[in-house]
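Late entry, written up from scratch paper. The run itself happened at the end of the previous shift, but nothing got recorded in the book at the time, so transcribing now.
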Amino acid sequence: MTTSDPPKPDGGAPVGVNSDLTAAIARLANELWRAASPGTADLVRAADDPAAGASGAGNQLVDHVPANAPLGGGASAGTLLPVPPSAIADLPLSFGGLADVNLATPYFLDLAGHPSAAWPAGAPAPGPAAAPPAAAQPAAAPVWSSDAYSLSLGEPPAVVLDTGGARRGMFDPAQVKRDFPILRERVHGRPLVWLDNAATTQKPTAVIDRLSYFYEHESSNVHRAAHTLAARATDAYEGARDKVRRFLNAPSSKNVVFARGTTEAINLVAKSWGKRHIGAGDEIVISWLEHHANIVPWQQLAAETGARLRVAPVDDRGQVRLDEFEKLLGPRTRLVSVSQVSNALGTIVPVADIVAMGHRHGARVMVDGAQAVSHMAVDVQALDCDFYCFSGHKIFGPTGIGALYGKTEALEEMPPWQGGGNMISNVTFEKTTFNPPPGRFEAGTGNIADAVGLGAALDYVTELGLPNIGRHEHELLDYGTRELGQVPGLRIIGTAPDKAGVLSFVIDGLRTEDLGHALDQEGIAVRAGHHCAQPILRRFGLESTVRASLAPYNTCEDIDALVQALLRLTGAGAFGR
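Output as recorded:
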């Protein structure tokens, strides 16, 4: 809550709540339960439903979910259902203290059982009832309560139900696709098939709604203001920073710096840490796989300081040669910077091994995670990298926002790279003192709304479940690789055994830009060009490829559409062949 304390629940009807709110939360409970356990009965009974029993009161929830209840797909979980911010935003909460809703803090519905409640008809039989341990109980009091369930504010305990993993137990990309309004577009009269995800991902309704909610209810500059909207905006902005922390498993939100994206984050490290710690004769090591954003800033730094840029080779399948990589490291190595996933080929790089190599030689190690975060779980503490960065628009969030993680000691030894408001603690004409990280690196007004949108995107990905996403995309990658083999003259570039969802290819005798344009006429969006990774394409003797890149909303039908279009396009006379 931002400006007032929550109302105290009285154990019966909600304090000061009209029937509209009760009905809305009842519908929300039904929706979350149906998503978690498809095919089971609703949890909520109307007042005149005989099944409601004596305790029924106008759309109150009188059934309950016992702890450790079995869910659809054979899963089991506790009794707490996380509530998406977009759902909270839709509730009629203008009563009591709930007029000032803090969407930066998680809400959850507590469906804990009550003695008078009955298990829903048609639901799977509950397993042995086992209450969560006391340490796992929610610490915060509910902000709304009925006789059988409550809406609570705060971080859910460890036993919270992961509705994403449970409701997607049998992962349904068609259901995911419905979360993205733009995927209902038609292009040149054809349904849009979006296979340009490595360039940018599309945005789910949850992110779009969260951005709208910010501008409708929270829009303000952050920090240093006494009014309500500034408090709401600050809560939302700093709440998004903490969501990034949790998503990356960073030790503290103070380790998270907001930036415009991966490119700006790499430049920040180059201009700040690099200029202070890299000098003439020192060495920076990267690989042939890198995006231009992880090449050009280091070239510029080397040119300015007299340092040397060294590049680790890749093999014919597009894998980094680890044996050759370590040979490049030595006493003058100051920084290693590598991509976790190649944007041009999809190769997954063993960054944990590279981090360990770099540290053995006393170097700092930066990981470009732009192409990794939407496909796999990232744990920066387990990786032990010194810096990690990613862009929001690569993970279903807005453009113009991203994040840099830095170890505490690495950030503290970096000077500011831009000056202005927000990054200072005191200014005189003689001297300026700077804020500690992360504020030291966030001069001026930040991209507040899009940071909040990034937080919503991370919530969405967490709800889907990265293991689910990874499995689905791996199956789709295998399917696409096999089906593309039907196309005459098609050659896939980048055949490493460990790949993310990228299918980069050329077709003998056909120009990639012609293929990209022709596919667009079929409603299929792919990327044709050098993908801001010219060195790695030239390693394979190419200037460009066609790249189809995958996301959780893609389906086998999308791959089929691509393959059938390519078969038509490579037929007799398609390009005047």
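The chain has a mean pLDDT of 80.
(Scratch paper discarded after transcription.)
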